[in-house]
Design brief:
Blueprint (H helix, E strand, L loop, with lengths): L1 H22 L13 H36 L3 H26 L1 E2 L12 E2 L2 H12 L1
Antiparallel strand pairs: 1-2
Helix pairs in contact: 1-2, 2-3, 3-4
Length: 133
Amino acid sequence: MKLTWKSQVCITAESGLLTWATTLGYGLHIWDWPFDMDNGIRMLLAINAAGSLSLTAAVWSKTSFALTMIRLVKGPLKATIWCIIISMNIAMGLSALFNWIQCTPIEKGWNPFLPGTCWPPTVIVNYNIFSAG
């Protein structure tokens, strides 16, 4: 299925971004982190992009499998699978989108030193728990 290779491209790009983020200090203890504001901003941007790619890869691979299942079933089960595909893509798409629009201005999402406001962290955490389920 065409979505399978696209999800593989997304997960490969996500791995590359996270590897790059580790060169900027991602994964280090805060005491060991080389405090450089520009690196920190680039690292947070890379992590946000990697998260979006990871969600996209997951939902595309699940959609690809579901489309394979649709070819094998008939009747109400086919409609049920379509409902699952649509609801899963909406829920996971919103998870990816919320990482980018949770702050005003948007740049505050990866640059915490900018003035502005963000949603309470519990909103994103609770929605991600819901969408993962």
